[in-house]
């Protein structure tokens, strides 16, 4: 009976441990890892796949051959690293230069779940490997921290390498976190994530500090733009449009001086009865327009008519009347 490849690999792991190929020379350590830039692969989280996109992470990169018994035996070890350390920022990647159909069969037969990319022979030469499998542990700055056979990459070594990469991992998480919270219009939190690197040079080099500074400058410019838009709209007599800009400014920069100033301007606007009516009318008109966009013509017309009745004399009422007339003409 033919054993499944995963069982063969498990059996090989023990029998080959004593005959593993010699460790690679340390000449790669400290150098920038040659870039992968691969668009052909399996289990890829994004394409094209590159080490550059994983900057800030500790990457365990194995160069392998599908017909290499030691490589087959190392799959279980790599899966264990991925399972135990993924949440801590460690990423496992496999790279092979053999034909795509053979790599695909390898990924399938050995149930590989980490990313595997097909690379060129030239890339393998760039890594100057002495045999297969060859593992390179790449730090958050893109430089090789360790190279050798996977059987020698024990937990103690990984713990040490993770500690060395911790500042880069923290920085990457901060920049990614800043981008994420900005999508939710939370500039205050984004600033807090970026300041340690941009202003205090904590856990980052000059290039990364400059990138964080540029992101902080963009956040400052966003605040200034929203404030300028609000002033321009007020000058044009568009109270509701000004309120929209100030409301976003106050929420995105909550807890900051810009947010406090925007909130104060909103309160001042609402203290003026005519301005308050324009803002309330604009909010009601926006809700009615959402019904128009949703194709609910009958409900939209009723909502628009309420805007006209509840907010007489406002720009919102005049606009609501015009939109309601167009909707009635389109109604069956």
How many distinct domains? 3
Mean pLDDT: 82
What is the radius of gyration computed over CA atoms, rounded to a whole number of angstroms?
29 Å
Most strands sheet: 6 strands, mixed
CATH superfamily of the largest domain: Glutaredoxin
| CATH top-level class of the largest domain | Alpha Beta
Element pattern in H and E: HEEHEHEHEEHHHHHHHH
- Give the N-to-C terminal Cα separation: 73 Å
- Count of helical stretches: 12
Instruction: Assign the CATH architecture of the largest domain.
Output: 3-Layer(aba) Sandwich
Overall form: elongated
Account of the protein in words:
The chain is an alpha/beta fold. The chain folds into three domains: 5-152, Glutaredoxin, CATH 3.40.30; 169-270, no CATH class; 273-330. Helices cover 59% and strands 8% of the residues. It has twelve helices and six strands. It has a six-stranded mixed sheet with strand order 1-4-3-2-5-6. Strand 3 (90-96), helix 3 (100-109) and strand 4 (116-118) form a beta-alpha-beta unit. It is elongated.
């Amino acid at each position: 009976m033919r054993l499944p490849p995963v069982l063969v690999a498990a059996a090989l792991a023990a029998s080959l441990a004593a005959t593993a190929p010699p460790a690679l020379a340390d000449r790669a350590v400290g150098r920038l890892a040659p870039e992968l830039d691969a668009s052909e692969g399996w289990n890829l989280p994004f394409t094209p796949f590159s080490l550059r996109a994983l900057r800030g992470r500790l990457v365990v990169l194995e160069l392998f051959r599908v017909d290499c018994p030691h490589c087959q035996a190392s799959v279980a070890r790599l899966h264990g690293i991925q399972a135990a350390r993924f949440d801590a920022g460690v990423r496992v990647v496999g790279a092979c230069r053999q034909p795509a159909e053979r790599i695909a069969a390898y990924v399938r037969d050995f149930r590989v779940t980490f990313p595997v990319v097909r690379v060129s022979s030239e890339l393998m030469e760039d890594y100057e490997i002495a045999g297969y499998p060859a593992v390179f542990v790449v730090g958050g700055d893109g430089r090789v921290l360790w190279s050798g056979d996977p059987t020698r990459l024990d937990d103690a070594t990984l713990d040490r390498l993770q500690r060395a990469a911790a500042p880069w991992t923290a920085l990457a998480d901060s920049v990614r976190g800043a981008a994420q919270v900005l999508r939710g219009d939370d500039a205050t939190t984004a600033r807090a994530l970026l300041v340690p690197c941009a202003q205090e040079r904590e856990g980052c080099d000059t290039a990364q500090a400059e990138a964080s500074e540029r992101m902080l400058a963009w956040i400052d410019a966003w605040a200034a733009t929203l404030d300028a838009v609000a002033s321009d709209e007020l000058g044009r007599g568009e109270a509701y449009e000004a309120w929209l800009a100030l409301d976003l400014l106050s929420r995105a920069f909550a807890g900051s001086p810009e947010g406090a100033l925007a909130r104060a301007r909103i309160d001042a606007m609402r203290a003026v009865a005519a301005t308050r009516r324009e803002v309330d009318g604009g909010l009601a008109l926006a809700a009615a327009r959402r019904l128009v966009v949703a194709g609910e013509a009958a409900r939209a017309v009723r909502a628009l008519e309420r805007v006209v009745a509840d907010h007489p004399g406002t720009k919102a009422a005049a606009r609501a009347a015009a939109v309601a007339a167009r909707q009635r003409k389109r109604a069956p």
